[in-house]
Amino acid sequence: MAVMPLLLLVAGSAAVAGLARRTPVPAPLLLVAAGLLVGYVPGVPDYTLDPHIVLPLLLPPLLHTAALESSYLDLRANLRPVALLSVGYVLFATLAVGYAAYLVIPDLPLAAALVLGAVVAPPDAIAATAIARKLGLPSRVTTILQGESLFNDATAITAYKVALGAAVGVGATWGEGLREFAVAALGGIGVGVVLMVPLHWLRRRLRDSALLENTLSLLIPFFAYAAAEQVGASGVLAVVVVGLYLGHRSWQVDFETRLQEEAVWKMVSFILESSVFALIGLQLPVVLRGLGEFSGQEALWYAVVVFAVVVVARFVWVVPAMYLPRALSARVRRKEPEMPWPATSIVGWAGMRGVVSLALAFAIPATVHDGDSFPARNLVLFLTFTTVIGTLVIQGLTLPPLIRALKVPGRDVQAETLIEAQAQNEASQAAEGRLEELLADERNALPGPLADRLRTVMERRRNAVWERLGTVNEVTGESADDTYRRLAREMIDAERRVFVELRDGRRIDDEMLRTLLRRLDLEEAAAYREGAS
User: Please, which pLDDT band fits residue 473 given cuts at 50, 70 and 90?
Assistant: First the structure.
């Protein structure tokens, strides 16, 4: 892709994503709609989705970001439903969609139909995370959806490789397919386990340089993915395992690294997510031009069938997966809380597909082993595109009203704030005891005002969370904590203006200005984070 079209894609996607933040519509849906419209604007170049870019270059950082933000402990607590969805459901959907396509589409070989099934089987990690975040779903539902979307790409890619091998004539038996799946899954996890500890050790050894640590952070997902793929294992699982471990241990790195890393990955994920969803919509002209011998009405009928099977198959799998283990096992009933049926309905309906499905479809070769054309390749690509768009638009748009209709409770912010306040209180007590212990040592002697300042900062941090539970100002509508942060920002702004005036008057130089401004920036960040919900 030329540089200018790429820059236009990134800039346009960022603009639409920014606009989406001012609307109730989730950003992925608005970006896809914009891509669909822009694709037919005269002069807009073709943006053909290249699987050799998406899978090794776009997928690793997106998965890594999602893994860093996920909870290893929550995933472990919900391992059974996550595994049933990320492995069991993907294989079930592959078979269900593939066999339905084989029955409905004349002259479509079963192997080629199973390729289609594997392509559309995995719900999308980016879409699930973005929409769950926007809708404020209950924490367990969000954990299950995120966990499924983190791991299901590995299952789908392996199933795709096995089905594709059979379709192009290089053949694979069921036994070989199972062996390849085991190698990919266990190998990907193994590579991730081997890499995660030394990579974390290296990050900690670089603690004197946040710049080097974050450079390493940007390289980690690509390195993990490439290392796993090099040995025939799942790069997806390697990236996820490393990301979960580093996220779980992030408290052990330097604070400056954490601040920079959070900002860097937010920017990277924002740009990539925005561009990916816009890119999905922009594929429409390319897909329609390649439809070939299939008429529009005929292809549309096949699209409706495939979409319906995708939606129905998810409910057919999700409902038993959530309730049968509890009915059959007392151990499961003891360990796991029951999933209310409205929450199960949301998990069943939240099956949006995304860029991985399209990348796999575009990766289907044009010819098979004997030189003939791949059976109905253009139709498979079209059906993948319509399924991705259908799930993103229909399911994505109807999720909020469905949540309201089913009265699915959102996150209990009040309860979470209370837990946060209790945790902060325990931590503050420990800090207070440690401070007094240190001050009792003459080597740590401090002037009274400085010692009192440490106590004041600690007390402020202890009280900040409790204040969010209190009353609000009748005039401004702010809590005491909101007012504190606003006044702190105003004071810092006043200092900042003075520093700039001193620089402009040549009383300090630019290097000193940057040093002073960075100090204020850190103080402002601290003041904001103390009370941020």
Answer: low
